[in-house]
Amino acid sequence: MSKIIIITGASSGFGKTIAELLSSHGNKVYGICRREMSHPQIVYKQGDVRDAEGIEKIVSDIVAKEGRIDVLINNAGMGLGGALELTSWDEIKIQMETNFYGCVNMCQKVLPHMRRQRAGRIINFSSIAGIEGIPYQGFYSCSKFAIEGFSEALSAEVKRFGIKVSLVEPGDFATGFTAMRINSEATLNDPDYGPVFRRVQAKFESEENNGLKPEYLAKKVEKIINSKHPALRYCIANLEQKLSVVLKRLIPGNWNVDILRSYYKS
Fold first, then answer.
1. Whole-model pTM above 0.90?
2. What residues act catalytically?
3. 224-257 confidence digits (pLDDT tens)
4. Mutual orientation of helices 253-264 and 194-209 as an angle, nearest 10°?
């Protein structure tokens, strides 16, 4: 049966690819993004996930037209690179407000409708960086760690209403995300951090640009939506990254930090 699906960050990358796949398979997809977009099969709504009033109106309009919301996919996000010590409060604020507060805002606006209908799926995008604290992407990791904890607690609270919550934890994928990352100028210009940051930055950008294709992840998300008993967490990454996640759970924390330092040469 056709599902009513909301996807945030639907103008590019994962969001756009997922929206196109799901709409091509007969679902009614509403894409939320900050810029104007048009697509013959996707209904785009211009909005910012950080805007509580704006999002509430968008969600209310969708429910008024469709009568329900079956799936919410919280994909909207941005990246921030730099040393934790030198990252400005303005940079931290935009990172946390976009990735974490935006996810919370969407859930809070959609959940009343899902509770009323006693059914729904919520898929929140985390990251491998939400499992391991990545050097020079520390506040990005913070935002994704927050989504991990939020989603786990949310799943326990809303399961009795027939609402199922899942986390998607992507590894490196070749999308426009890399080019859009904000990098700390203070870090780049610092004599201690700057040279190391440039080296680490070159490594993770190369891995992202040569990563998996977003179409692979989109197919995985479709399977999660259609699963009768979805898991809480789905790590969608290459074999090396999946093994690193398993390894983290098995070895002492200090060893894992040393492995990360060695891998990124930080």
1. yes
2. 11, 126, 140, 144
3. 999 999 999 999 999 999 999 999 889 988 988 9
4. 90
